[in-house]
Write a structure and sequence with these properties.
The chain has 747 residues and is of the alpha+beta class. Helix content is 48%, strand content 10%. Helix 14 crosses helix 15, helix 16 packs antiparallel against helix 17 and helix 25 runs antiparallel to helix 26.
Length: 747
Amino acid sequence: MIRSLAASLLVCLLAVPAFAQDIPVRSGEHGNFTRLALDIPADLVWRLEQVEAERVTLHFERDGLRFDTSAVFDRIDQSRIRTLTPSAAGDALQIDLSCPCVADAFTLQGRMLVLDILPGTFTPTPQTVEAPAEKPAQRRGETAGLFDIRVGQNPGIGPDPSGSPFLPSFRPTQGEAITAPAPAPEPGLEPGRFEQMLAEQLATAATDGLLKPAVREPPKAASIPGGHALPTGIRADPPGGAHLPGSIEAALAGRDPDDLQAHVRIGGIACVSASDLDVASWGSETTFDELIPELRSRLYGEFDRLDEEIMLAMARAYINIGFGAEARALLDLAQGRNEPVLMALAAIVDGRADRTGVFAGQTSCDGPAALWAVAGSTTLPESAQIDANAVLRAFEELPLQLRELLGPNLATRLAEEGQPDAARGVISRLARATGDHSDDMRFSEARISQLEGAVEDAQALLGEIAARPGPNAAEAVAASIEIATEHGSPIGTRMTDLSTAYSTELRDTDQGPDLWLANIRALAANARYEEAFTALQENPEYPEETRAKAVTDALEILTDHAADPSFLKQTVGDPGRFDGLAKPAAALAVSGRLLQIGLPDAARAWLEFEGIDRAARDTRLLNARIHLARGEPEEAEIGLIGLQGEDVLRLRAEARRMMGDFEYATNAFETLGETRRAESAAWLAGDWAALEAQGGTLGAAAALADSSPLDLGGPPSLAIAESLAGSAEETRSTLRALLDETRLPEP
């Protein structure tokens, strides 16, 4: 029976990998269509289905597949693909579209499923494509140039029909001298994968400056003793060459695939030229009134054909006056034309990040690219260098309307990246150019002060902005409350009332979640716990990250400042409503206070929250305290196994005391220097000698308990009577002192 059960278990374990196949999903833009690529097993049968205009589904004959879609939107935007949703059973991938598009799919080399989303009209009848045969990687609208390596402002590698359309191929040309045989691939490596990995690593290393191009003479055959030359195809390694592969791997180990600054660029990262960023020359004072209408009249020529040169001039004019959305709409008209620099500029002037990565890594450029790289970033790597002088020079060369538009955000980004002097320089230059100190500038100055640690200055500026109507008033309220929460400062009644009003008025705007969070914080900080926790349940549609922060901050304020009745009302009744939202630190704090109040069962409920690390030291200590409070010393000591420290010894001593091992408890408490608890344990253990050595009331009582009965030694006499009387008096005094010392306090 046991042998049969073991065999069945082994079969199940061996079968698991077959049903838990990882399927990475990669993406790329190819001009007029978007491509997804999935590395699938060679025998996996799939089916493409599009029964709705905005939904495409890939079905697979096998369930239990795990689709990794985490990096899909790193290289594409959401203009064609809105979301990707794996099915619960792991047998399908649903793609929601955001354009009037159709889907086409094919397999490549039998192990890659390629799905293309192309512009087209969807027919209302169900469309199903069952595992079609392989097609060449070149699609409609592509040119032969996509097979080549592209250099310049938009470097990249085109699709290769013999390999992945997203990765470079490695093909030595005929007649190319190969000086050394290529290392054999590791056992189990797929054919062609080694060349692919080598090409990727070489491109990445060149990008990071680890490899430098050099023109060399063909190596001469090295001589060996005896006057013979090395055989053809074998050459001597250069000094130190053995360390090169390790250096490349070490430099690549810490790369973050989600970091646009780390994207591979063929030929390295080059600065976008100043001539391509001469925004000031793209318009004039009459751009809006004269230039744009004149260009619009010439946009379409004979037979309604789009004049792409006029379109580009018009897009540049829109960027010149800060109309980014209009510029992007124009650039989208030319499906076959790719203008990444203009697309990036159009996004940045609209206050959006540079998602294309055009300016990634260019903050140190000695030109206008440094300004756009800072303004278009959300965060920068720690190693990033910023040429502050180049940023300031480029800022002064911008048209005034763009300086007003970009200045405050640019100053904030500089301050966030540790450049407060340059940030204040941007604000001062903007104030001189406009002759005014706008609320946008004041808000940026408040952010700079906050980052520098001048919290009071930041709060004063934010209070001024929030006190009067304006476009930044609501944001100033949220920022002021955030600073007060981080530093434990009081939040005034007026600021709380403003947060309530704005969170209601702007609930359906982009600012809604931040204002709702600010209102929760303000209500909790003003001890209006009932209102705060009621509001937490009224807005479940906000992003989970915002809700988690609101729950966590409210619970932390409640735990630190609320009276016991208010605290218990929110934490004991239905703690499950906070599970999955409260951060582990907040849940542990609530559990600790509940235990301190004397409610170990309620404390244990909070200790079971999602996300709490059961193996963490703080969690194990708290769990042991709960076991002790519940009268479970054995479980408490088991939970402390492997931990060291005075706090652990104290809990272990208490567990032993509860189990009756008073000798261990006495020694442990003495080691900790807790004399009173050591004496108490010794008393319970009956260790009279140890107590006598300590002296004091317990020592006298121990001596009395350890004393022998009085030996009369003969018939009663006056001396014996006097001795008995004295002993009785000493005993009464000792007992009286013991009772006084252990007397319970008056209620």
